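Tutorial handout. Part one gives the primary structure; part two gives the three-dimensional structure as tokens.
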Amino acid sequence: MFLGEYQHTLDAKGRVSLPRKFRDVTGTRIVVSKGLDDCLYVYPDQGYKAFLDKLGTASDFDRNSRAVRRFFTAGAVEVEVDSAGRIAISPALRKHADLDRDVIVAGVGDHVEIWDAATWASYEDRNATTIEDAAEELARQGIL
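Part two.
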């Protein structure tokens, strides 16, 4: 399980360090893909396979299903964690998340998200006032 929020810096080669406790869960092979809300998703190899298995249950004849599957797979990259605990993020994925230098590496349960630090701060500010409403709605649905 991935929990916590960590500040890191993207180096000149487009690499970012993963926190040690995340690397203990991911191992050395991970998948980085586009994520929602202008971030990147990072999954352990098998976690990404499970994610794709869920996406694969949707019909190829449904336009939304195809679009979502393409969004999460077309730009995804299998990456090796180097001996220093860093992962290289492709230029296309850096562009998707607008990553420049300061980043946030956040654990969100079954995967990790990588955010531009300013985008993360803005996201948190926007959602601070609505999170209680969202939690109440999930409780009404029996999810919380």
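Part three, for discussion. Strands lie at 2-9, 15-17, 29-34, 40-44, 77-80, 86-88, 102-109, 112-116. The first helix runs from residue 20 to 26.
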